[in-house]
Amino acid sequence: MTTTALSLSDVTVAYDGVTAVDRVSLELPHGEVLAVLGPSGCGKSTLLRAVAGLEPLTEGRIRFAGEDVDHLPTHKRGFALMFQDGQLFAHLSVARNVGYALRLRRLGRAETASRVAELLELVGLTGYADRLPATLSGGERQRVALARALAVEPRLLLLDEPLSALDATLRERLAVDLRGILRAAGTTALMVTHDHDEAFTVADRLAVMRRGRLVQSGPIADVWAAPADEETALFLGYARVLTGADAARVLAAAGQPATASLAVRRSALVADEAGCLPGTVVSARATPDQVRLVVDVDGIGDLDAVAPLGSHHAPGERVSLRVDPSRVAPIPTG
Ligand code: ADP
Ligand code: MG
């Protein structure tokens, strides 16, 4: 049984009368990770800061485990924050950075040392205790920042674009690690990001924001399978959303009813020598009036001869899509 940890109702924040977060309502169960995903400037950081108690609400309520936290100052909420740039203390060693909050709590020396060692192991930095931040890579610094944020076992971890400052390869790897670390620690977390891959890798739930408002939220698979609208689909990483005649043409070639829309997700796979594109079904849904099949194969939107598609394919299942070059039809972009 999961219970609600964080609950936002109609949370609204304005700067000088200009609304940055507009009546956002959300629930986050204990032990889960929620990613708030949206383009730059849509109000993500403002929302996170409001939860942390760093921005006053114009309207609405924030509760944790059923109790109002609006009246509590930041340090009494039991939440921890981690930012894009980690913000480590440059003159302190890795161990002293991680143990900082423990020492503030007057934990004994031996106890602090063993907790720090445990945290360094959790984030994969055993052996780094005596290093200074300046001698670490960007990814290592973010691991230290994460260990430091987790040190006091916050009841909620707030992450603002924790991986955005890293280069793409490292970001991908660290996203996987971040997910593992949060799971291993059983941490309830709210992460904001503009990067859909990062959100998909790290989180259990997704809340899509646009212009201060919440557009859609729910378990990741549900949001992915049925984006609220075209703009949301594109933001989630769909390469195109086909409707009308384009969708009918592609679906007809796939042996599906023609009154449907088809979305194709962007990814990088290479066709094999037989002209087959191996792919993974990301989502498949069939109802009397709609068929939507999302296959994780790059470029398939440019080819309208797709063979064994059907509602019996389950998400995650591997499929091969046979491609008949004579029937390749370009699909208009935009
Ligand atoms: P995001 O994190 O999604 O990029 P922000 O929450 O930082 O977006 O910003 C949302 C909106 O609020 C933007 O229009 C931004 O210019 C504005 N804003 C953010 N912080 C302040 C501030 N301290 N004072 C005035 N306006 C702000
Ligand atoms: Mg931001």
TrEMBL record:
Key words, A-Z: ATP-binding, Cell membrane, Ion transport, Iron, Iron transport, Membrane, Nucleotide-binding, Transport
Pfam families: ABC_tran (PF00005), TOBE (PF03459)
An annotated GO cellular component: membrane
EC numbers for this chain: 7.6.2.9
Start and end residues of each ABC transporter domain: 6-236
Entry superkingdom: Bacteria
A GO MF term: ABC-type quaternary ammonium compound transporting activity
Protein's name according to its UniProt entry: ABC-type quaternary amine transporter
UniProt source species: Nocardioides gansuensis
